[in-house]
## 1
Amino acid sequence: MKIDGHIHTPYCPHGTSDPLKAYVEEALKQGYHSMTFTEHAPLPPSFLDPVPDKDSGMDLRLLERYIQDIEQIKKEYQRDIDILIGLEVDYIEGYEQETSDFLSKYGSRLDDSILSVHFLKGPVHYHCIDFSESAFQGAIDDFGSLEKVYHAYFRTLEKSIKADLGPYKPARIGHMTLVRKFHHHFPSPADWDAPISALLEKVKQGRYQLDYNAAGYFKPACLESYPPQRIARQAYQAGIELIYGSDAHKSKGIGQGFDRIDHTLTTG
C-alpha cells in the first residue's frame, strides 16, 4: 500500500489555496491507497506565536469547518482512497495543559495525528526554529550557542514523547530532526546525534510511530529527510514504525521525495 501520512490543506494559513479535491486527485493519480490530512492545529490560546505573521497554526474558528470538509470528502472518495482526518499538533513546553484540553475536546473526531516540535522555549523568548534562517540565528543568540539550541531541541522532543496529553495524544512524532533544516548554513555540532539512540528507545517504549518526512530534501539548506536515512534505519531496526510524509503544503507536493526515501523501512 502507498501511504502519505503528512499532508496540509487550504486551511493552512501559510500554505496555498489548493482545494482538498486537488490533493485527493493528485494522490489518486500517483496511486496512493491512503492519505492523512494533518493541518497545523490551532495554537494554545495563551501562546503568542513568535513568527511575524502569526500564522503557524489554523484559526480555531475554522476547525469545525475543516473537520466537516474532510468528513465530506472522505465519503465522496470512499471507494477510491482511504482519507483520514488528522492534525499536526504542536508540543510547546509550558502549554501542555492547554494542548491536553484541546485534544480532549477534538481528539475523538480525529483518525490519525502528528505531534511536532516547532517551538523552543528560550531563556528570553520562544522561537520557531524552522521559520527562517534569521529566526534560527535569533534562537542561537538567545540560547547562547548552536550547541545549546540543539540540546534544547532534543530535550523538548523528549518532553513531547513523555508528555501526558491525555487519551487522544497523537501517535506519531513529527519530523524528529527538524533542527537540521538549516544545517548547510549552520553546520551541526560534531556530536549532534548523540541523543538519538535514547530518544528512539523512548519512542519505542511509548509505542509511537515516526514521521519519515521527505520535505527536507526540498529545503536548500537541508537536503535530507527528517530523520536522515541512517537514523530511519536505526529506528526501523529498533522496531519503530515509520510512516512516509510528504508534508505537502500544495497539491503538487503530494508524493514529494517519495523516490528518495528508503521504502524498505516504511509502512505502506
## 2
Amino acid sequence: MTIGKEIRLKKILRDGKTIIVPIDHPIEGYFKELEDPRRVVEEIIRGGADGVLLRRGSLAKTYDLVAGRLAIVYRISGATFTSGDMGDQRLTSSVEEAVRYDADAIAYTVYVAHPKENDMYEIFSRLVEEAEYYGLPVIGEVLVWENAKVDAFEYLRIGVRTLGEEGAAIVKSGFPSDFSLYRDLVRYSIVPVIAAGGPKMDSPRKVLEFVKAVMDAGAVGTCIGRNVWQQESPSKMIRAMRRIVREGASVDEAMSELL
C-alpha cells in the first residue's frame, strides 16, 4: 500500500471507524431534500460526519464547504432511474478525474445476480489496478439486483468477499432484513465493511437499531443517505449515529441526541 493511499484511508477511517453520508441519489429519482446540496452538506458537517459520497455536479456546488472538513468519496458509477434498470451500472467518470478533484476514494457499485454482473466485476478490477497507481482507495459497493429471485444474504456475502478479493479497500454492503445474519456477512469479508442504509426506514429508532446491529456485527461504520437527510434534523441523526459508531452507545443513549 502506498503512503498516499494510507493517508487517504486515514481521512475516511478515523480511528478505524467512519460515518459517510451519500448524496449521490439524484440520478435515481427525485428527492426534494437534495434540491439544495449545500444545505445538506452543511447539515452533514454540523453533525460531525467523516465523509460525503457524491457526484461531480454536487461536488462542484459544495467544494468550498467540503474542503478540509469532509473526506471526499467520489462516485464513479451509476444508472439512471429513467433507464429502467438501475442494476446496469456504467462508468460515469474516471480515476484521473477523481484525482484531479482531490478525492480521497472512489466508489463503484456491483449489482450481484444481474445479467451483467461479470461485466461490472471486470470494470471494478480494472479500476482498482488504475487507482492503485495513484494511491487512491476504491470503495466497492455490493447490492442485490431488485429483479433477482435469489437468497439475498448469500449473494451479498459472496459479493462482499469478491470485492475484497479484487482489491476493494472498503466494502459498502447492503444487508439482509434478518439482524442475526449480519455477523456472518461481515465475518466473510477480508476488508472493512460499512453498511448501506437502503430505503427509508419507519422511524429514527429503527435507523439507530440498524446502526447498532451492524456495528455489533463487526462493521466499521455506515454509509447511510436517505435515512439521514430525510430526517427532520439530519445533523442530529448523524450525532446520534456517532454515539453508536464511535462510543459504542446503546440505542436509548443515542436517541437522546434527537431530542
## 3
Amino acid sequence: MSKKKKVKQAGNMNESWLIPYADLLTLLLSLFIVLFASSQIDQKKFQEISRSFSASFTGGTGVLDFESPVEPKQLPSSSKQDHKHKSALDKRDKEELQNVKEKIDEYIVQNHLNGKLQTSLTEEGLAITILNDILFDSGSAEVRVKDRRLAKEISQLLVMNPPRNIIISGHTDNVPIHNAQFASNWELSVMRAVNFMKLLLENPKLDPRSFSAKGYGEFKPVASNDTPEGRMKNRRVEILILPHTKTSPYSLH
C-alpha cells in the first residue's frame, strides 16, 4: 500500500518551474549576445538596441540603458601636458630668437651694413646672410684682412646663454672656378664656410662643439645667375642659429 502511494505522489509532481527557468536562460543568453555584438558595432547602433531591449524586457529603464562600454580614445593626461609644455618651449624659443634678430638688425643699421647683411626668422631658425663680396676676393677662400673685424663683431652677437647650435654654410654663383686651388665651386664654398667659422671661434666665449660648417656650391641659389646682381646675391655665407628644440645633424658633438 505504501509503495503504490509513493508512485502516485511522484507522478503528480509539479514541473511548471521549468518554464520560467528556461525563460531566464534565454534572457541571459540574449543579454550576452547583445553585449558581445555591442563591442563590434558603433555607439549609435548600440544605443538603439539598448533602448529596444530595455523597453521589451522591463517596460522602461533596464540593464541595457547605459552608454557604450567602449569609451572614445583620449590622449593620456601626461601626453597633453607634454604637448602643452613643448608648445610653451617653442613659443619662448621663437621669442628669444626674435630678440637676437632685433639685436643684430640694430647692429646692421648702426654700421650702415644694409644690403650687405640680412636677417630672417624661419621655422629652421634665425638666418644671417653675409654677401661674399664683403668677405672674400674672387676665387679665394681666405677672409680679407680688412673684413676680419666684421667677423669678430658678428661673433660677439652669437654669444648666447645657453649656447645654440649654429651652422655656417658657404654658397657661390654658377660661374666655373679657374684656379689650381679649387676644382669646383663646391670645394670653394666649403672652405669659405670653414675659414669664416674659424674666425668666429677665435672668440673664447663661443663653444666650438656647437658649430658646424658645410658648402652648397652653386646648388642653392637665392636669385637668378643670369644677371650680375643675381650672381652677387648667390655668393654668400649664411649663419643659421637653430632653435633649442632642434639639433644640427652636422653638429660636432
